[in-house]
Amino acid sequence: MTKNKQSPPFLKNYDNLSQVLVDRQLASLGDAYVNLVYSLALSKRKTRPYGAKVKGTTLAEALRKAGLRNLLPSRIDRHAISDAAEAIIVYSWLHNLLTLEDSVQTIAEADIPENGLTQLILKAKEKIRLSKLFPVPC
Q1: What Cα–Cα distance (Å) separates residue 8 from each residue in 30, 52, 96?
Q2: What was the pLDDT predicted at 133?
Q3: Do 85 and 116 meet the contact criterion of CB atoms below 8 Å apart?
Q4: Helices (H) and strands (E) in the chain, counts
Q5: Separation CA 16–CA 57 (nearest Å)
Q6: Which of the four pLDDT bands, split at 50, 70 and 90, describes residue 9?
Q7: C-beta atoms surrounding 15 within 10 Å
Q8: Is residue 37's pLDDT more than 90?
Q9: pLDDT of residue 11
Q10: Would you give the DSSP letter of residue 71?
């Protein structure tokens, strides 16, 4: 994959989605972004400001439900799986495939916020596939 004009200069080149999922630095940025999105979604649902951190177990489960666990190494802990969820979400945002507003709305409209995270990961996966940045398994 080559970087497009809109890609942030710090974003690495990736050949496939698996490389995105295991990038710890990308996951670190994703941690902050996912917590912001989640907090905004909860604030919208509760109709008052609300700050929250997403549990790693919740993110790991969302990634598994989205069908992306198979793209990670077989021997990997739950923390690394939750990092992968954060990485794909922020990667999609950095490439302007998902907006902050769309991400918040996806989580806020779900029956429970945790299911909204699964929907957000599925949406990110689909947007990446449609963007043709690199092949994405279905």
Answers
A1: 14, 27, 10
A2: 81
A3: no
A4: 6, 0
A5: 25
A6: confident
A7: 11
A8: yes
A9: 83
A10: G
| Percent of the chain surpassing pLDDT 70 | 93
Q: Stretch 73-79: mean pLDDT, rounded?
A: 93
Q: What six digits make up the tokens of 117?
A: 């995270």
Residue bearing the bigger pLDDT, 63 or 7: 63
State the residue for tokens 């302007």.
96
Return d(Cα 82, Cα 86) in angstroms, integer. 6
pLDDT given for residue 5 in this prediction? 56
Q: Which of 90-101 are b and which e, b meaning 16 or more Cβ less than 10 Å from the residue's Cβ?
A: bbbbbbebbeee
pLDDT (0 to 100) of residue 113? 86
Distance, CA of 1 to CA of 85 (rounded, Å): 21
C-alpha–C-alpha distance, residues 44 and 90, integer Å = 21
Report CA-CA distances (Å) from 100 to 76, 90, 97, 120: 29, 10, 10, 11
88 neighbors 98 (Cβ within 8 angstroms): no
What tokens were used for 60?
A: 């790991």
Domains within the chain, CATH numbers bracketed: 19-131 (1.10.1520.20)
